[in-house]
Specification:
Layout (H helix, E strand, L loop, with lengths): L22 E6 L2 E6 L1 H6 L1 H8 L3 E2 L5 E2 L9 E2 L5 H11 L3 H6 L6 H13 L3 H11 L10 H11 L2 H13 L6 H7 L1 H14 L5 E3 L4 E3 L18 E2 L6 E2 L7 E3 L6 E4 L2 H5 L6 E5 L4 E3 L14 E2 L4 E2 L5 E4 L4 H8 L1 H12 L1
Parallel strand pairs: 1-5
Antiparallel strand pairs: 1-2, 3-4, 6-7, 7-10, 8-9, 10-13, 11-12, 12-16, 14-15
Helix pairs in contact: 3-5, 5-6, 7-8, 8-10, 8-12, 9-10, 10-12
């Protein structure tokens, strides 16, 4: 039997580092953490720059480098040890996490990871935390207030818009708990948007009934105003301006109806839950209580270019709440976009 000759493999070059970890020592709230520093360099420009600084020297000429020993750790003030431990769990998953696919963290742990990864500009870890908090698992479900708060504090664009929009779409005034969580500035914006988006915003209540402005009478299809210019009442000749909310009296106020919008559109969180509409034939001049519209006038929409049924004239126009949110919170959203770009 012929002998088998084995080819001699070259000896590995000992100067080529593969799994040679440099340890860095951190101190947080009195607790010591010793971990490989490579991932801090890989995930964070801030730590990469820190570790790339030349070492200072003490009076004896010895290198004085923090983080190389327990006696001289890098102290992270202003953070909790539990927050830092959660970050390390995300950065250094165990072998069982990887092999069994069982990596799970609590809601509070993911929030801690999101907080620190945002502060230290760890983009990949930050996105990992956002994904973890968006997983939908029972342990990490976020409410509308949670999304609004986390979006504001940790600059997450989608959560900020979704959370605020959902709060406004509920139609309920902010609770004391929400005010404490979100802060007066955010809640002030929310209350203002709710007023702007309300289908009742163009109505005014008087001692005799309900009134509205001439400019608030709009096409039910395109939501454009029927009138571009003021009118003179056909009965008493009084001038009816476009923006006077007490100019048009709505006879038979109960005729002001709520028109439900399609459920799919309501769930898009871009509109209020209904429009308000009136019977255009029941509009009266608030001064003389007679029909202010000239008899020759027809309810003709200049945009749609078609005559409309006067029995269904829209007053409360649906607003895109999401657009109002983006306008009111434009400074905060710009900070969110900057966080993603940095």
């Amino acid at each position: 039997m012929a002998s088998v000759r084995h080819k001699r493999l070259p000896s590995p070059d000992p100067t080529v580092a593969t799994f040679m970890w440099d340890i860095v020592v951190f101190k947080v709230e009195g607790r010591i953490f010793q971990v490989p520093r490579q991932r801090f360099i890989e995930y964070s420009d801030i730590f990469a720059d820190m570790f790339g600084l030349p070492a200072s020297r003490d009076s004896q000429g010895k290198a004085d480098v923090e983080g190389l020993s327990i006696e001289s750790p890098i102290t992270l003030d202003g953070y909790r040890a539990s927050e830092f431990e959660a970050l390390l769990k995300a950065m250094y998953p165990t072998s069982s996490n990887v092999l069994e696919g069982t990596f799970r963290m609590t809601r509070e742990e993911w929030i801690s990871v999101l907080k620190l990864s945002t502060v230290w500009n760890m983009k990949k870890i930050r996105q990992h935390a956002i994904t973890g908090l968006s997983s939908g698992h029972d342990s990490v479900i976020l409410t509308s207030v949670d999304k609004a708060y986390l979006g504001l504090v940790h600059r997450v664009t989608n959560w900020l818009v979704e959370g605020i929009t959902s709060i406004i779409s509920s139609g309920d005034p902010p609770t004391l708990s929400e005010i404490r969580t979100l802060g007066l500035s955010a809640v002030s914006h929310i209350v203002l948007i709710q007023a702007q988006a309300s289908p009742f915003k163009d109505l005014s209540s008087t001692s005799t009934g309900v009134t509205c402005s001439l400019g608030s009478l709009k096409c039910p299809e395109c939501y454009q105003a029927f009138f571009e210019n003021p009118l003179f009442c056909d009965s008493c000749s009084a001038m009816i301006s476009l923006d006077n909310r007490r100019a048009i009296y709505l006879e038979n106020a109960p005729s002001v109806r709520a028109a439900t919008i399609p459920q799919a559109e309501a769930e898009s969180l871009q509109a209020t839950k209904f429009d308000l509409w009136v019977d255009g034939r029941m509009t009266r001049c608030a001064k003389c209580l007679y029909d202010p519209i000239p008899l020759s006038h027809v309810w003709f929409c200049r945009v749609c270019d078609v005559k409309k049924d006067p029995q269904r004239i829209v007053i409360g126009v649906r607003e895109r709440i999401q657009d109002l949110v983006m306008e009111a919170f434009h400074e905060e959203l710009e900070e969110c976009r900057q966080a993603d770009m940095d």
